[in-house]
Amino acid sequence: MPADAITFEQIRERAYELWERNHRPDGFEIQFWLLAERELRAERERRRDGS
Hints:
Elements: H1 8-21, H2 29-49
Helix pairs in contact: 1-2
């Protein structure tokens, strides 16, 4: 696994934060998981690009 790989745990934690911030709606687990993954990837890309 690359040193900057996003872990399952990091995605899980971010998805949980997003879910809580959005008032804990039922039935949106996949959407929050995917959003968390996208956010983490975007943050990594910004850091890698030096922005």
